[in-house]
Amino acid sequence: MNSVNIVGRIATDIYHYDGEDEKPSNALFTVAVNYAEDKADFIRVTAFGSQADNNKKHLAKGRMVAIEAEIKTSRKERDGESEFFQDIVQRRIRYLDKPQDSK
Q1: Inter-residue contact 36 to 70 (CB < 8 Å)
Q2: Residue 11 main-chain phi, psi, to 5 deg
Q3: Do the domain assignments include residue 101?
Q4: By residue range, what is the domain housing residue 40?
């Protein structure tokens, strides 16, 4: 089973890219996940399609979220060397607070 659950605050702006040539849109952002009283990991999350579009509409830096995701691994060749990347790909998201401009 490839399943990751994280809870934290959005640490970056949401970078949204519209899909081209029948490719789905995607959204990239980072979630700060605390693991000690004064320490956090910053985890990059990717969402595709309608989830990416909803993230663009509803997420902003500072929002608290719970994300269910999966890990995807990829490899790229750069200057004759292989580089490996791990991405967290969002399956579901739950907003744990209200937007700051809501009252």
Answers
A1: no
A2: -105, -10
A3: no
A4: 4-95
3-state helix, strand, coil in the chain (%, to 5): 10, 60, 30
pTM of the model: 0.82
Q: Say how many CA atoms lie within 13 Å of 46 toward its Cβ.
A: 14
The Cα-based distances of 92 to 19, 39, 45, 74, 77 in angstroms read 20, 25, 11, 21, 31
CATH number at residue 26: 2.40.50.140
State which H helix or E strand residue 56 sits in: helix 49-58
Q: What is the pLDDT along the chain (103 residues), one digit of tens a residue?
A: 899 999 999 999 999 988 777 788 899 999 999 998 899 999 999 999 999 999 999 999 999 999 999 999 989 888 889 998 888 999 999 999 887 665 4
